[in-house]
């Protein structure tokens, strides 16, 4: 609960509401939140780090990486949440060692981008093929590796342009990962009605298109869905 960005400010998810004052806050302690998540059948849970320290999965200590992955899994299980199929690293930062530890536990890894020097050497041939083919997503040894086109739904973007930006990203690719952060819709603890309205516009557009499906990461494992 004291995580700060490089400029020294508390993370947005800590300042957009009234949170606990303890140093750590297991998700299971917030029963109202957990009950809400469990009541919505359309939601699926993604494993997103452990403490959300800055670049916490950019470290190279595999023992510590393993401990954090195991602890995160325990906290989700204690909360009664379904064990995730996908992992997303805080700040999209992975070390080579982190990729190996995460791939041992999860079938789907989603991030903003991939860097060859951070990937395990054994993954390089599949990564090189992805680069040559200009693919956003790829697979290696049973692990599905996804990248996203940035946080298209964000208060850092122009509100009047966000819907069109999402539409272009979705229409030009068979599979698009859409990223947004809940806390950006609550500026200084207050709902940003205009931004929330943009989210509703995106949902309405997606729902109006019979040729577009909104799926979870887990759905990628159930069905033969083309990545690119």
What is the count of β-strands?
6
Class computed from helices, strands and strand pairing: alpha/beta
Q: Provide a count of the helices.
A: 8
Q: Quick one: biggest sheet?
A: 4 strands, mixed
Rg calc: 18 Å
Give the CA-based shape: globular
Estimate the strand proportion. Answer: 5-15%
Structural topology:
Blueprint (H helix, E strand, L loop, with lengths): L11 H4 L15 H9 L22 H17 L7 E3 L7 H8 L4 E4 L12 H9 L5 E3 L2 E5 L11 H13 L14 E2 L2 E2 L1 H16 L10 H4 L6
Parallel strand pairs: 1-2, 2-4
Antiparallel strand pairs: 3-4, 5-6
Helix pairs in contact: 3-4, 6-7
What is the gist of this entry?
It is built from eight helices and six strands. It is α/β, with parallel strands linked by helices and about 230 residues long.
Keywords:
alpha/beta; 8% strand; 228 residues; 6 strands; 35% helix; four-stranded mixed sheet; 8 helices; two-stranded antiparallel ribbon
Task: Describe this structure as you would to a colleague.
- The chain has 228 residues and is α/β, with parallel strands linked by helices.
- It has helices at residues 12-15, 31-39, 62-78, 96-103, 124-132, 159-171, 193-208, 219-222; strands at 86-88, 108-111, 138-140, 143-147, 186-187, 190-191.
- The protein is 35% helix and 8% strand.
- It has a four-stranded mixed beta sheet with strand order 1-2-4-3, covered by helices on one side. A two-stranded antiparallel ribbon has the order 5-6.
- Helix 4 links the parallel strand 1 (86-88) and strand 2 (108-111).
- It is globular, with a radius of gyration of 18 Å.
């Amino acid at each position: 609960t004291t995580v700060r960005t490089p400029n020294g400010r508390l993370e947005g998810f800590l300042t957009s509401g009234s949170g606990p004052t303890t140093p750590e806050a297991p998700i299971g302690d917030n029963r109202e939140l957990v009950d809400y998540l469990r009541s919505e059948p359309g939601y699926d849970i993604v494993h997103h780090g452990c403490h959300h320290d800055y670049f916490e999965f950019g470290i190279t200590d595999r023992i510590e990486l393993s401990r954090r992955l195991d602890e995160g899994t325990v906290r989700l299980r204690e909360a009664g949440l379904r064990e995730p199929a996908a992992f997303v690293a805080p700040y999209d930062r992975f070390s080579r060692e982190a990729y190996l530890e995460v791939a041992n536990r999860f079938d789907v890894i989603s991030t903003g981008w991939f860097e060859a020097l951070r990937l395990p050497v054994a993954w390089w041939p599949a990564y090189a093929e992805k680069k040559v083919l200009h693919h956003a997503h790829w697979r290696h040894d049973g692990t599905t590796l996804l990248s996203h086109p940035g946080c298209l739904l964000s208060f850092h973007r122009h509100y009047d342009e966000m819907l069109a930006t999402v539409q272009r990203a979705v229409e030009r690719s068979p599979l698009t990962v859409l990223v947004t952060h809940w806390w950006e819709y609550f500026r200084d603890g207050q709902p940003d009605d205009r931004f929330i309205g943009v989210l509703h516009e995106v949902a309405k557009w997606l729902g109006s298109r019979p040729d577009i499906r909104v799926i979870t990461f887990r759905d990628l494992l159930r069905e033969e869905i083309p990545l690119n």
